[in-house]
């Protein structure tokens, strides 16, 4: 699945995170191991800082479990509409 400019614009509007930051994080995920909890937690922490949103330990645990368990929807765009 490629990341379209339209998708990036929607995410940027909803999160106030620049396209460049989004692409940088996507690159880290692409180059990293999505089964590695440390990598995923690092990205969660970075997103938390970029968005100014606090992510609780419980939320972080759920996100890690979903990513490691391949429970992420194929259509990410539907998550931000």
The H/E string reads HHHH
Portion of residues in beta strands equals under 5%
Low-confidence parts lasting 5 or more residues at pLDDT below 50? none
Rg is 12 Å
User: Which structural category do the helix and sheet elements fall into?
Assistant: mainly alpha
What best-fitting shape do the alpha-carbon axes yield? globular
Q: Count the DSSP helices.
A: 4
User: Helicity level, as a percent range?
Assistant: 55-70%
Gap between N and C termini = 18 Å
Number of domains: 1
Strand tally, please?
A: 0
Q: Sheet bearing the most strands, described?
A: none
Give average pLDDT, whole number.
80
Overview in brief:
The protein has 81 residues and is mainly α. It is built from four helices and no strands.
Set down the secondary structure blueprint.
Layout: H1 5-15, H2 19-31, H3 37-51, H4 57-68
Helix pairs in contact: 2-3, 3-4
Describe the protein in words:
- There is one protein chain.
- The chain is mainly α and 81 residues long.
- The chain has one domain (5-70).
- Helix content is 63%, strand content 0%.
- The chain is built from 4 helices and no strands.
- The longest helix has 15 residues, at 37-51.
- The radius of gyration is 12 Å and the shape is globular.
- It starts with a helix and ends in a 13-residue tail after the last helix.
């Amino acid at each position: 699945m490629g990341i379209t400019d339209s998708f990036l614009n929607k995410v940027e509007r909803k999160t106030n995170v620049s396209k460049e930051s989004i692409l940088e994080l996507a690159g880290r995920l692409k180059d990293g191991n999505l089964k590695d909890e440390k990598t995923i937690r690092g990205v969660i922490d970075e997103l938390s800082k970029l968005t100014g949103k606090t992510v609780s330990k419980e939320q972080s645990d759920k996100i890690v479990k979903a990513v490691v368990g391949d429970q992420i929807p194929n259509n990410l765009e539907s998550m931000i509409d």
